[in-house]
Amino acid sequence: xxxxxxxxLALQIASATNGRTWPNPMVGAVVVNNGQIVGMGAHLKAGExxxxxxxxxxxxxxxxxxxxxxxxxPCSHYGRTPPCADxxxxxxxxxxxIAMLDPNPxxxxxxxxxxxxxxxxxxxxxxxxxxxxxxxxxLTAITKRRPFVWMKAAMTxxxxxxxxxxxxxxxxxxxxxxxxxRYRDQADAILVGIGTVxxxxxxxxxxxxxxxxxxxxxxxxxxxxxxxxxxxxxxEAPTILVCGPNADxxxxxxxxxxTVDVLQVxxxxxxxxxxxxxxxxxxxxxxxLLVEGGAEVHGSFLDAELIDKVTMFVAPKLIGGTGPSPxxxxxxxxxxxxxxxxxxxxxxxxxxxxxxxxxxxx
Length: 362
Ligand SMILES: Nc1c(/N=C/[C@H](O)[C@H](O)[C@H](O)COP(=O)(O)O)[nH]c(=O)[nH]c1=O
Ligand SMILES: Nc1c(N[C@@H]2O[C@H](COP(=O)(O)O)[C@@H](O)[C@H]2O)[nH]c(=O)[nH]c1=O
Ligand SMILES: [Zn+2]
Hints:
This protein is α/β, with parallel strands linked by helices. The protein has helices spanning 3-15, 51-59, 84-91, 110-117, 128-134, 136-144, 174-186, 194-200, 249-255, 274-283, 295-303, and strands spanning 28-33, 36-42, 67-72, 95-100, 121-124, 148-156, 189-193, 216-220, 239-243, 260-264, 267-268, 271-272, 288-293, 309-315, 341-349, 352-359. The strands form three sheets. A nine-stranded mixed β-sheet has the order 10-9-8-7-13-6-14-16-15, with helices on both faces. The chain has a five-stranded mixed β-sheet with strand order 2-1-3-4-5, with helices on both faces. Strand 11 (267-268) and strand 12 (271-272) form a beta hairpin. The chain is elongated, with a radius of gyration of 23 Å. Bound molecules: ligand AI9, ligand AOF and zinc ion. Residues 50, 52, 74-75, 84 line the site of zinc ion.
């Protein structure tokens, strides 16, 4: 096997920890001596040992003269764990192959430099784009200091998220909706607007055959119109109600509970300031925010240029009429100003399409 194949293995081990290492990145490491794998490991949970440490512990003295493949530059700082760069140097490996440098300002090339200074050969950029894509969430969070925003919507072929009566059950198939629960299982938080709560009374929990973890529920509700009976106020997952500065204090107190928090943020012409909201959510260590609608919320995230990834489910059915489309808000006046999506992928769930893309940011 060559460098790319061993790095591919390290990436596969890392991606198996999807959604569980936050607010840390997913990282995998493989130690190879004379073409034989002598150690491998992944970072399993923030605060626990890093991938390199697991792999080098497994290799033991077989690390001597070996090559270590790691999907992220060995760290060089004392966070919740000691620096991997030192561990790598002590291990006796003679070559370090890195997929991507670590943009965390605490590391940012210093790890690789320290290893080079110790006279060890360092190669970088092997399967770099795969490594960046795998940690797209963490990369956005660590560089932009806000959660990665993943917009998910579902519409009929004629572009509606509900009938003109508001009825929306169901647009997509059971298997497409199950895929959405796998997104929720990965997400740290899920966000909807009060309109969706009033229309659908959603639970917004993760309900997979194998269980899954329910994200924090974030409800944009500027004037706290949410009824006390709303299912999202239940105890099965934490809920953050986001309202404006002049919401009724009595209502705030009546809504607060063991699992319900009320977060007041500033308003931008009558709507929640999304930059302030994301800053507050980031402070709560939320790095992947799944935005599930409705149209006004999606439109305001688009207007604020805060969408990092889009998945649109398209069901091959026609509802007709003047029902709502997936994105409202201000939008753009010219088609040439439309947000162009890149790195498009299309999946099918029964007859439903799931189109995923990334807004192309110049
Ligand atoms: N109506 C449809 C969707 N509707 C999405 C709305 O957010 C809806 O309120 C929630 O999905 C309901 O959440 P919960 O199941 O109660 O946790 N989303 C979809 O992907 N397909 C559809 O057909
Ligand atoms: N998970 C991971 C790294 N994560 C890096 O270290 C930071 C977290 O440090 P700590 O708080 O000590 O866990 C994280 O933000 C990222 O920059 N580095 C690595 O060498 N290998 C790993 O497996
Ligand atoms: Zn480390």
